[in-house]
Amino acid sequence: MTHKFTISLKNRLTLTYVLFISLAMLVLCIVINLFTNIIFAALVKNNIAAKSREIIRIVEEQYNPLTGGFNTETIETMGMYFVSEGFIVTVEDRQGNRVWNARSCDFHHCTSVINEITARMESRFLATGSMRLDTYPVIFKNSNVGTVFVETYGPFFYSKTEARFLSAINSLLLIAGIALTVICVIISTALSRTIAKPIIAAGEAAKKIAGNYLIRIPDHYKTRELAELSRSINALAGELEEAERRKKQLTSDIAHELRTPLTCLQGNIEAMIDGVYAPDRERLESCHEEIKRLANLVQDLDILTNLEWEIITLNKTEFDLAKLLQVTAEQWRMTAAGKGIAIQLNAKETIITADYDRLKQVFINILSNAVKYTDKGGITVTIETADEKPGRQCLVSIADTGIGIPDGDLPHIFERFYRSDKSRSRSTGGAGIGLTIAAAIVHAHGGNIEVKSGKSGTVFTVAL
Length: 464
Hints:
Heat Shock Protein 90, four-stranded antiparallel sheet, alpha+beta, 11 helices, Beta-Lactamase, rod-shaped
């Protein structure tokens, strides 16, 4: 026997929170780093352009119009300073003669600076580039008096200070991300534990409820879903408790229904065996009636079981529902007339597709109860159609003016062996499952059955 790997709810929630928050932090850090690099790169490019303009300005200031030359000492000082900043400067006069060149002045220093910048950009910042040369004219009083050549690593480069600043930002983001992840793990663990605790408690209570339906769990949680879960489990426990009670009542009712005819049979047969009663036609017919009662009870239970388990095939045909109701009413008209009540039928031709015999059994069961519990007034059977609804839904209502059904009994009227007037039902020989069978047949047709009752009588409505 193999066991699938399982993980507790608390661990699953913690893992989910941590993964989600870590992923969010990772994406956030990447986005921040990306935007920081873009913004910082733009700032550096502007800084490089500003320094290039500063170089040109200094060179222009060193031009002497009287001699037509430049102050090479100041240009050399400026040039060597900017070499350290990554700018290789060359100055020429208007004739193209070289005034000063950084490589010629200190070739090794220039090469060292260039190599350092290239290594920094390629190894630390994974940038690919090369040395580029920009040419700027030297203007004096709107005249071109020379040219400045500025060679830099392109498209841009970070100085030592800028590189340290960018590295510090990246390190800060990394540390902040790690710190926030740790905090999120702690918060996620606490949060998942808070959420899982009542669910675990509900699970433990559910296990106990399986053996004791009287157990209830607290439902005072401030989280709405947890409170709903607790209330749902308590409601389930209540329904199971009620179902257990009904099951015991069902067993008791079945035992009673079987005991009554069996006791009668046993008494009569033993009396005939002992010679107390003669085995005449009257006694045998009495026994036969009890046997039929037992057979009908077993048959009704069998029908009900098959309907509820949906293993009965409905023999659907097309017929007139009004004629079915007329035939059914005729079966009870004589009995109703004997009690001084009338059965009135208000029905026009209504063609439906259904199981004729099963629906007839539905209306027989309802009409039998109506006749049984009505002592004055009458019974009205009506068909109403709703053409505007899909499938042309039709409603069959059977209204009587009998004793009615108490409000407390209405929710249970379609349950097996349920009687609102137990003594009267048994005296008339009913087993208390006629309406249950009727409801099961209607539901098997995809319909619905409802009941309304008051002091003025009862109305059963069948929707098909």
